[in-house]
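Marked as duplicate of an earlier ticket. Keeping the data here for the record.
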Amino acid sequence: MSPERNSSLLLTNNQTIDNATINLGANGGSAYLEDWDTTSTNHVVTLGAHLIINQAGASAVMTDAVGYAGDGFVNNGAINAAVNGGQFVINSQSFANQGTIAVSNGDTLTIAIRTGRTPVRSPRPAPPSN
């Protein structure tokens, strides 16, 4: 999976994503991996032990897009931020790292834990229902 510039990979509600490689990043904009809470309750996206996220452009963002308390991510996999001059941002209500995060090649990692309902990007249309 490779989200392009100013695009998102939306993961709705409680989900685990595993056994995949996500190339996340964009030049001239951002690419987002988003926890999309459709029920206004605590939802966590778990990045499985066999998931690899590679930063693929200057700007990559992981966020809980709606921003309800308790929303966030658990990383059991591997996050690789290695773009020269790049920025990888994790901006969420919660983030637990039980996997690995590697930062190299002049990239910058920012982990920002938010409090209160402060969506990163809004308003946004609701994702399609299954």
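See parent ticket for discussion. The radius of gyration is 13 Å.
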